[in-house]
Amino acid sequence: MKPRTLALWLVGCTLLTRPLQAADLDPIFAEAAKYESGMNPGPLRQIERRVRDAAGQPARRAELEAAVARLLPPPATFEARRFACQLLAIIGTDASLPAIAELLKNDETIGIAGLALGAQRSAKAIETLRNALPAARGQARLQLIGALGNHQDALSVENLASLARNGDAATANTAIVALGKIGTVPAREIIATLRQGANPALAGAIAEATLNVAGQLAAAGDPKAAVTPKPQWRGCCQRLRTPAAARTSCATGSPGRLTWRRGAR
User: Fold this and answer.
1) Which residue range(s) make up the domain with 201?
2) Contact at 8 Å (CB) between 99 and 85?
């Protein structure tokens, strides 16, 4: 990165993570920062219009991103912060990630942070989620695990493998489902090992994870397929609304290798 480009990037990050000051924003953003449910949404609608009008104007969108990201820290209201996250799902770039990352540290705001990060597929956005996971607890941890699974983040497999053996059932089940969505060879090996353990508390998550992986292999035309039906998982298959070809029980086989047979019911 060129020195001048690096300097501009550092300045931008400083501005985006700085607490909101009324002097930083024009009156519309200042009013939006005070928004509560039931109040006049006029300022929010005006900001949305500015975002629409900035389509195809990278410089203007960058200015708006900076202004919107400064709605994320207090003293902006929760509703204003949620609105900002919804907009950042549309116009957000890596420049706004430091401000969003602060929301990942709190159970109250991690959900709205997910609104901003859900549509961002950059490596930096996924890294932000991954880095927040070790310190997260409770509902925040469950949401981060789910997000990493949805992003199919292969670099999270090691952490998720540890969480899949966590004493907390909600954490373990969420991590197992996430591993199934990721579906890499290491993830499949972990799922196969857990399947052999036959822990009743994890059976549903293991079934769902195995189905996800089996579906991925079938979609890829894996020629090694052959499935041994598991009648006790049939309810899980129906709940997941899997395609007809996938409505079999989950596979058995050696760790890391799922087997698949089409047409079994």
Assistant:
1) 155-265
2) no
How does pLDDT run across 138-168, given as a tens digit for each residue?
A: 888 998 999 999 999 999 999 999 999 988 9
> What single-letter amino acid sits at 233?
W
* Phi-psi map region of 198: left, alpha, beta (phi>0 left; psi -120 to 50 alpha): left
pLDDT digits (tens, 9 = 90+) for 100-141: 999 998 889 998 998 888 778 889 999 999 999 998 888 889
| Cα gap 83→87, rounded to integer Å | 6
Peptide bond before 73: cis, by omega within 30 degrees of 0? no
128 and 164 both lie in a single domain: no
Q: With 90 as the cut, is the pLDDT of residue 4 above it? A: no
Q: How many structural domains comprise the chain?
A: 2
| Whether the Cβ atoms of residue 133 and residue 174 lie closer than 8 Å to each other | no
> Do 113 and 168 share a domain, yes or no?
no
Contacts of 112 (CB under 8 A, 6+ apart): 78, 81, 82, 85, 103
Same domain, 7 and 127: yes
How many Å apart are CA 75 and CA 67, to the nearest integer? 15
Q: Report the pLDDT averaged over residues 42-65.
A: 94
Alpha carbon distance 164, 170 (integer Å): 9
For residue 20, the model assigns a pLDDT of 40
Asked if 128 and 144 touch (Cβ cutoff 8 Å), the reply is no
243 pLDDT tier (thresholds 50, 70, 90): very low
Residue 145 lies in a domain: no
Rounded to two decimals, the pTM is 0.71
How many other C-beta atoms are found inside a 10 Å radius of the C-beta of residue 95? 17
**Residue ranges with strand state E in the chain:** none
